[in-house]
Design a protein that fits this description.
This protein has helices at 11-34, 40-46, 48-63, 73-87, 90-93, 135-175, and strands at 65-67, 98-103, 107-110, 115-118, 120-125, 130-134. The strands form 2 sheets. A 4-stranded antiparallel β-sheet has the order 1-2-5-6. The chain is built from 6 helices and 6 strands. The radius of gyration is 25 Å and the shape is elongated. It is an alpha+beta fold.
């Protein structure tokens, strides 16, 4: 019986193996990031503010009210105040805060092009005013926030993947 001696790996071979494993992990991370909207624990890692805002939307849809102690209240009220500031003088709004958010019943909105269902939400402000907004618009803002964050993460992962491929190609050229 002949004993086969193990050949030690070179540094280049270790590097190629490490790059392969890192690329595999990057691919798995990319999959989870791509599907983070459906996987809550991944969304909490990738985009914590979006995850809390989505949870706030779920509470608003189920309980019909969202208070200052509820999850997602801060994120949703910040989105609303940002929109309010873009349409009004910021000096007038600097001391105004959102106290509570209420979901109203659905109603029909008629226009010349079509009729659609609108679900208004009412923001109670610290100065006593109540301002209505559209739940669909709020959901669009939350989704856009998530998509923007995922795009940044996708660009980072792409850049790292490109770097890995470049290094692997360089190692492959050395062997030729």
């Amino acid at each position: 019986m002949e004993i086969v001696k193990r050949k030690d790996l070179t540094l280049g071979q270790y590097l190629v193996i490490a790059l392969f494993v890192f690329g595999l992990l990057l691919a798995v991370a990319g999959f989870f990031a791509d599907h983070s909207g459906e996987i809550k624990f991944v969304l909490k890692i990738v985009s914590p503010n979006s995850a809390e805002a989505r949870e706030g939307l779920e509470i608003l849809n189920s309980k019909k009210t969202l208070g200052s102690k509820d999850c997602g209240f801060t994120q949703i009220s910040n989105m609303f105040l940002k929109e309010l500031t873009s349409q009004n003088a910021p000096e007038e709004l600097k001391d105004i805060k959102v106290v509570r958010i209420n979901r109203k019943g659905a109603k029909l909105a008629f226009s010349t092009a079509r009729t659609r269902e609108v679900i208004p939400i009412e923001f109670e402000l610290s100065n006593g005013q109540k301002v209505e907004w559209n739940l669909e618009e709020l959901e669009t803002r939350v989704n856009k926030c998530t998509q923007n964050r995922l795009f940044v993460i996708a660009c980072i992962m792409f850049s790292i993947g490109l770097l890995i491929q470049t290094v692997s190609f360089g190692i492959g050229l050395k062997k030729i």
